[in-house]
Amino acid sequence: MSEFGDGVGVTNTQFVTLFDARNPLHLVNGERLDEVIVSYETYGTLNDDRSNAVFICHALTGDAHAAGWHEGDKHPGWWDVMIGPGKPIDTNRFFVIADNLLGGCQGTTGPSSINPATGEPWGLDFPLLDMRDFNVVHRALLDHLGINHLHALVGGSMGGMQVLQWSMDHPEQVHKAVIVASSARLTAQNIAFSAVGRQAIMRDGHFHGGYFQKYDTSPDTGLAIARMMAHITYTSEEGFESKFGRNPQRDEWSHGFGVDFAVEGYLEHQGEVFLGRFDALSYLYLTRVMDYFNPFAEPGCLDRLLDDPVRFLVVSFDTDWRFSTEASRHIVRQLTRADQPVTFRDIRSPWGHDSFLLTIDDYLATVAAFMKSDTTYRGTSWER
């Protein structure tokens, strides 16, 4: 049983148009979007001087519903273990903001949204995105909420990538940054997994060159296979053995090519439920952003941090082979070489990459302690 408290209760998703034809979003690749609608949720209360805001950046298939319950939900928000009264990101103390990122499919403008110039879904005419594009939209949401500075940026997996890029580009806006189970650059193996997932989608007969909405269909088989393969990478061999072993799916073996093992049933279920909440085009676009992400390769990438240090917490899990401990150590090494204050912890967990979403007390206690600390940075030393 975790020591941390209950949730935030019933929550509602809100929507706002942050960019329009008079104020378009100019993308890193030189293209622009004349309409960007963003879905978001908030938890807790913003204090009088607006200094207690915490921004949550979600992972590849996440959304704005990070905590609490929507009416009729069977499950709480995707990071409910982390956010709420008495939890590591304590909503008794912090005002928490979570949005669905650009290119997503849970209320924010993405490739399946309507192109205002044509009245048709964007499809593959939607422009390719960059990690910085996500953060431009995140920061526009902060402007909309009247918040200039964040007590903390927090994100896991691809959310940690957003946190890292934001902290490097605009450190004056960030006091603390929490990067969990993430990476500053994907390995060739990671890129390969994403490539196979995208190919499964694009080779599905219902993909129709990315314009499947015109045909009132969807590449469900390809998307389900992409999700099944991704789930293999999200846990560890230890986790699979502990949970499934070689257990049968049913009382008797069928000795055929159907679902005979419990682990096969698990993967099939994950593929099926994914179809009800995610879009194939968003999967293509967002995985490609991750492939190209490599911020430390840019000359002078840490220069802004030298003038405005950010306090970092970097967390990895010892069985995470998708975003390994070494990937987190690479982030730590780069930041410490730039004289940034960094705390690093590698947490023991059998559950691989998925650990960042789970109730693991050492992990939650580490984030809680970091969030509670009011240490401020002075030059090259810490003072309380």
- The CATH H-level superfamily of the largest domain is Alpha/Beta hydrolase fold, catalytic domain
Order of helices and strands: EEEEEEEEEEHEHEHHHHHHEHEHEE
Q: Helicity level, as a percent range? A: 25-40%
Strand count, sense and barrel status of the largest sheet are: 8 strands, mixed
CATH class of the largest domain: Alpha Beta
Strand content: 15-25%
The low-confidence parts are: 376-384
| Radius of gyration, whole Å | 21 Å
- Principal-axes geometry comes out as globular
What's the mean pLDDT score? 94
Secondary-structure-based class equals alpha/beta
Order of strands in the sheet with the most strands? 1-4-8-5-11-12-13-14
| CATH architecture identity of the largest domain | 3-Layer(aba) Sandwich
Task: Work out the number of β strands.
Answer: 16
Total domain modules: 2
Distance between the termini: 33 Å
Task: Tell me what you see in this structure.
This protein is globular. Residues 376-384 have low confidence and may be disordered. With 384 residues, it is an alpha/beta fold. It folds into two domains: 14-186 and 297-383, Alpha/Beta hydrolase fold, catalytic domain (Rossmann fold), CATH 3.40.50.1820; 190-289, Rna Polymerase Sigma Factor, Chain: A (Orthogonal Bundle). It is built from ten helices and 16 strands. Strand 9 (114-115) and strand 10 form a beta hairpin. The strands form five sheets. An eight-stranded mixed beta sheet has the order 1-4-8-5-11-12-13-14, with helices on both faces. Strands 2-3 form a two-stranded antiparallel sheet. A two-stranded parallel sheet has the order 6-7. The two termini are 33 Å apart.
